[in-house]
Design brief:
This protein is mainly α. 62% of the residues lie in helices and 10% in strands. The protein has a three-stranded antiparallel β-sheet with strand order 1-3-2. It is globular, with a radius of gyration of 17 Å. Residues 2-135 form the HTH marR-type domain.
């Protein structure tokens, strides 16, 4: 029984990930890049350190440095060195980064439109169950 549930979860996660990726394609953004933009945008003063970003990524294997370099190349973030401690680097989101993040979130919502098939009470239960599984 548990094997079937695990396989079903993996299939659903893969399907949802594919839908989100397909929706984000026109923006040339990945789900991980969108997550980084969201982390920075929601941080105090719209800036975060690399370690703060790493701590909030769901995928511990994500290569945050690579993601940051891609986002810098797209001019969605900038790196700013701390004046007192040159080793400390703050990642700041640009205006274009905020615009891309907002557009990406809208497209991602469209990719997850299948969730709209659920009633409010079902969504609430699903959120609770997912949270319970992750804790």
């Amino acid at each position: 029984m548990h094997t079937n549930i695990a396989i079903s979860f993996l299939k659903t996660a893969q399907w949802l990930n594919s839908e989100v990726s397909r929706q984000l394609e026109p923006l040339d953004l990945t789900a991980q890049q969108l997550k980084v933009l969201s982390i920075v945008a929601l941080s105090e003063n719209k800036q975060a350190t690399v370690n703060e970003i790493k701590a909030q990524m769901f995928d511990p294997m994500s290569n945050v440095s690579r993601l940051l370099n891609k986002l810098m190349g797209k001019q969605l973030i900038i790196k700013v060195r701390n004046q007192e401690d040159q080793r400390l680097v703050h990642i700041k989101i640009t205006k274009l980064g905020i615009e891309s993040m907002c557009a990406g979130k809208k497209l991602m919502d469209q990719g997850l439109s299948a969730v709209g098939k659920l009633q409010d009470d079902e969504l609430e239960l699903l959120a609770k169950l997912i949270s319970k599984i992750r804790s």
